[in-house]
Amino acid sequence: MGVTIEFEPAGLRVEAETGQTVIQAARGMFSFESGGISAPCGGKGLCGRCRVRLVEGELSPSNDTELKLLGEKELSEGYRLACQAIITGPAKIEIPPEILAGRQKLQLEGTGVSVLPEPPVSRYNVPLEPTSLDYPHSTWQQVELFLARNHGLTDLRVDPGLIGRVEPLAGEGTVTVTVRGSEIINAIFNGRARKPLGLAVDLGSTKVAGYLVDLETGATLATGGILNPQIAYGEDVISRLAYALEGEEQYDRIAGVLRDGLGRLLHDLCDAAGVVPQDVEEAVIAGNTAMHHLLLKLPVGQLARSPYVPALTLPVEVKARDLGLQMAFGAVAYLVPAVAGFVGGDHVAMILSSGIHESQGVTLGLDIGTNTEIVLARDKEMLSCSCASGPAFEGAHIYQGMRAVDGAISRVEVADGGRELFYETIGGRPAAGICGSGVLDAVAGLYRAGVINYNGRLDASHPRVRFNEGRKVAEYVLVPAEKSGSDRDVVINQKDISEIQLAKAAIAAGTKVLLAKTGLTERDIDKVIVAGAFGTHLRLESAIAIGMLPPLPLERFQQVGNAAGDGARMILLSKTARKRAEEIARRIGYLELAAMPEFSNTFLQELRFPEIT
Amino acid sequence: MGVTIEFEPAGLRVEAETGQTVIQAARGMFSFESGGISAPCGGKGLCGRCRVRLVEGELSPSNDTELKLLGEKELSEGYRLACQAIITGPAKIEIPPEILAGRQKLQLEGTGVSVLPEPPVSRYNVPLEPTSLDYPHSTWQQVELFLARNHGLTDLRVDPGLIGRVEPLAGEGTVTVTVRGSEIINAIFNGRARKPLGLAVDLGSTKVAGYLVDLETGATLATGGILNPQIAYGEDVISRLAYALEGEEQYDRIAGVLRDGLGRLLHDLCDAAGVVPQDVEEAVIAGNTAMHHLLLKLPVGQLARSPYVPALTLPVEVKARDLGLQMAFGAVAYLVPAVAGFVGGDHVAMILSSGIHESQGVTLGLDIGTNTEIVLARDKEMLSCSCASGPAFEGAHIYQGMRAVDGAISRVEVADGGRELFYETIGGRPAAGICGSGVLDAVAGLYRAGVINYNGRLDASHPRVRFNEGRKVAEYVLVPAEKSGSDRDVVINQKDISEIQLAKAAIAAGTKVLLAKTGLTERDIDKVIVAGAFGTHLRLESAIAIGMLPPLPLERFQQVGNAAGDGARMILLSKTARKRAEEIARRIGYLELAAMPEFSNTFLQELRFPEIT
Question: Are A125 and A87 part of one and the same domain?
Fold first, then answer.
């Protein structure tokens, strides 16, 4: 029976089934770095770490394991072990912060993956007999004979490193071997193999989202995200490339932190799903081109300066162990091919999952981030470009900007000519700052209310506009200090508006140049796909109002969430989808905006806000 | 024009072409460890090391390089540089021992390879343009585009380690890339690629023979051999396995010396052919099962004790660099699959090159060595076994035995009831001892002359038979000390005869058990293939006389030389041959003689010599 469980303090509601443990129910959460509740013992009731508190509603009666690990006092206060307590009805459950690795809200679930599982790896259970003079066959020989006789597989190889890791005289039992192409990549003895799993990763400059997927059913067993640990070496991509270029040691370090991060992410996902890494037999990584290169330690000098070319745009297959990923011994990590220096495998994955490559008519696709990748598809022709839209929509470079975490203003409604203002914050907390969608709403609302003019200038005579004494910058007060969560006024200022103008102008100019190059106008667009975390949360009316998105009827828009993550999962699950992704990467035309004088002109025009209709 | 060149002191004749240098002509020699004349500078006339002496006939007049490096005195004595002197007609040329790595005679050329080159690697020359804003493509991107557009190759990968070894902005020029399957394994810039080469290796316990092959024409450019450096850890296979089993460090060491040896062999072959290792793009290694395992560092515990099973019998493909072989960066070493613990990839290669797998009627194939592998083929059915024939035929365990090197008695003719004896030695030198073919002839001749009876006992009353005073062992004097090259009588003694009885009994019993198992008799055999160095040099009449080979008309026998080496070259050159080798490995039935009581009985019977007919 389906019931709703609300997790505190995030206030996240998930649909769970009665009979599930709380840990299992928590896997439905999509928004925590740890990918749910951390259970170091794998949910076996051994470590007592997955301590949660029942706030409202009911759970199964506590058991002996919980009594032993929590004690009577904690039980009486409502504490439970998430791996033992069973969902019996609706409940509100508090997860103490210490068992969550972090609290940043990430967009991990998009439109959902819909693909027939057809994974690149196949498992076979091979019965083994003891080796004897009458049956003089070693373990691998028995595997060879069995696969040839029963499955017609005669063209096999074994990962050379795996050969010696298998006991030659294993004796009676079973070995589960995994075949990828013609290579045997995994061997698990005596029923310890559970189900074949895969790891899909959307590798962004800021966020790294991971999905642990059941390769047989296609089900996502756990999702999680981490901040890209390379942030320590620069928020922007160019700083990180520059760091890597300082020397071998620096490159090792910046690649190493990312590899370590991926390793932890995989570990946490396995923990959350209660599985072991040896069952994870394939990884797919879709990332922007710079992250792709920095992960693989490819040459990046040419990526850091014009014309910003990738070292290569072929798919890369590398043993996962060579990236430090501890999964099945011979598992392969597949890196989705990039298109250009600023159009990466994540863009390819986005196109795949949103179906842009096979859409009819004219489709515009935007994956909005620090760099915004835009694709214009007419029938089967695709042309992409990338424009530097900056980090304003992630809350950076905004005076009181913040990421989309608790306390961030995420929705703004301007009324009464700007004299009144309504807003929502994430988690319903007192406003501590403003995130991308909030800034967008605020600018659009203030523009429509006339508080901002078409050049983006704040009306200094407006009653809520003032000059910040120290900074001589005009600002509009969104939330006065007495109502805020930060003991100071939450404002939006003239510079913030300029940042938004720069960002929206880049996106709009990119779109227009693509259209011009293709001989089309905005009116010809049949469908607009808006992808990415910010793209999913933004209010379309606001984005249209400031001229970031084309002025089309709302029904032509589709906000698809983390389409790159969805695409990565499709590529993980299906060989057909993988082929298709490679075709997409080859087929996309790339427009280098830096090489086009008309881009600069259009960009300058687009700094203005459009006429109010 | 073809002329004959005789090389001293080996007395080897090769067919050469006028216009070739002496070094080039020497590559036709097959019998030296160094694979010809060692030329450290690569035959460029820089080092002066390849000093040879013209003994008879003529060469081109000496040039300035020779004058500079040899001086007038040496030139006047007939010394020349082998890299400078040109063949102009027949000649006899002396090669000083110091420029030959060793002097052991190895059987390297067999029946000769006859196979249509169809190598697993293909080269493509890709024209490159400078990367610019108008042409924003890196080197790999240009390769990708070129191969897709001009060769329809769209499913490529690059060896991950190779990606970063290529300059991303190579600029104008050409890059030659090599594709293996769907993987790019090599990239050579600006015409430095010469021709694609391959390395074939016949990896024996005692001898390692290497062939450097032109993958386009199939020509063997250089051949060479080394003693297996593992001999230092035991002449026999079991001692080496035992050493490897002592611990990780020991295994590293014994695998390491072999890998190092292969590396030196490759290096010497490249030197001899005047080529660079980066052009060597594939290696094929056919070895006995123990050598195969010890090279790859596979588990060997199970190989050292009954039932002696290999860790695996699938083909192994490993990056050559992981075996320490410095060839093209991404080159693969392919190890021919084994059949059983004592039936290795060399046996498979032997069957392939001698065509046993597709012969009509009944064919018996023997590769005689310390272990003798025997295959019995009836139409397409093949059954193999291995028997421990011991090292007697390599001169070991024979009182005055020696390898087939200069001074070894290699042919013996017994006349006048054993009172007279004629013999030949290798190189025509005074007799220093006796090698395998000589021992075989001597035993056969003495048996036919009645000096040895059917039980192998020497007739103590024979005038040339005496008792060695110190050792109380009957012996027959082959060469008295005054005529020998060793200041002592060269003899054959009762123990030597026993060794030959043990060896021949093992081979004969193996053959008979195979026949019995297949419901055949010796008379049903249509063809007998005798392979291996000893097998090629032995006198068939002698082998038949002592009962080692079946008593069949001589025209049914074929001595095919180093058929394993030939097979290795075929597998290197042709994907079809490779497939066929894998089929052979799968199809061969294996008879474990140790599991068959009838083998012991037959063996005991076969210790006797057959009736003289």
Answer: no
> How many CB atoms within 10 Å of residue B2?
7
* Domain CATH for A74: 3.10.20.30
- Write down the residue that tokens 């027959």 correspond to: B476
> Which tokens in the block code for residue B85?
């002197």
Q: What is the pLDDT of residue A10?
A: 55
Give residues with Cβ within 8 angstroms of B174, minimum separation 6.
B125, B126, B127, B128, B189, B190, B191
Tell me which DSSP letter residue B554 carries: G
Residues B170 and B214 in one domain: no
CB-neighbour burial class of residue B523 (10 A; exposed 0-12, middle 13-18, buried 19+):
exposed
Instruction: Please tell me the distance from the alpha carbon of residue A49 to that of residue A348, in angstroms, as a whole number.
Output: 40
Same domain, yes or no, for A414 and A455? yes
Nearest neighbour of A136 by CB, restricted to B158, B307, B318: B307
**Domain boundary pick from A189, A204, A228:** A189
Contact between B271 and B280 under an 8 Å Cβ cutoff? The reply is no
Is residue A564 situated within a structural domain? no
- Distances in Å between the Cα of A606 and the Cα atoms of A447, A454, A599, A601 are 15, 11, 10, 9
Alpha carbons A39 and A22: distance in angstroms, whole number: 11
Residue A590: strand pairing partners? A384
Number of separate domains in chain A? 3
Do A69 and A136 lie in one domain? The reply is no
Domain's final residue, options B167, B189, B211: B189
Using alpha carbons, list the distances in angstroms from residue B435 to A107, A377, B400, B480, B511: 79, 79, 9, 17, 24
Structural domain span for residue B90: 2-99
In chain B, whose CA is at the least distance from the CA of A149? B586
Radius of gyration of chain A (CA): 26
Whether residue A422 is contained in a domain is answered as yes
| DSSP state, residue B462 | S
Is the CB of A316 less than 8 angstroms away from the CB of B157? yes
- pLDDT by residue (tens digit) across A431-446? 989 999 999 999 999 9
Omega before A117 cis (within 30°)?
no
- C-alpha–C-alpha distance, residues B271 and A22, integer Å: 70
B479: tokens are 């060469």
**Is A18 an interface residue toward B (CB < 8 Å)?**
no
- What residues of A are in contact with residue B141 (Cβ under 8 Å)? 309-310, 312-313
Mean of all residue pLDDT scores within chain B:
90
Q: What is the mean pLDDT of residues B8-27?
A: 76
Report pLDDT digits (tens) over B356-373.
999 999 999 999 988 899
Asked whether residue A473 is domain-assigned, the answer is yes
Residue B42 lies in a domain: yes
| ipTM field | 0.80
Q: Which helix (H) or strand (E) holds A184?
A: strand A183-189
Using alpha carbons, select from A225, A119, A103 the residue that is nearest to residue A562.
Answer: A225
Based on the fold, state whether residues A83 and A25 are members of the same structural domain. yes
- Amino acid code (one letter) for B256: G
Q: Provide the b/e sequence for A534-570 (b: ≥16 CB within 10 Å).
A: bbbbbbbebbbbbbbbbebeeeebbbbbbbbbbbbbb
Average pLDDT estimate for A38-60: 77
**Contact criterion met (CB below 8 Å) for A233 and A251:** no
Q: Does residue A78 sit in the same domain as residue A150?
A: no
Stretch 147-186 of chain A: residues touching chain B, C-beta under 8 Å: 148, 154-158, 160, 163-164, 166-169
When pLDDT is averaged across residues A267-291 and rounded to a whole number, the result is: 97
Beta-carbon separation of B154 and A582 below 8 A: yes
How far, in Å, CA of B272 to CA of A436, rounded? Answer: 69
Say if residue B12 is in the same domain as residue B53.
yes
Nearest to A507 by CA among A411, A367, A404: A367
Q: Does A311 touch chain B (CB under 8 A)?
A: yes
Q: Within this chain, do residues A75 and A136 fall inside the same structural domain, yes or no?
A: no
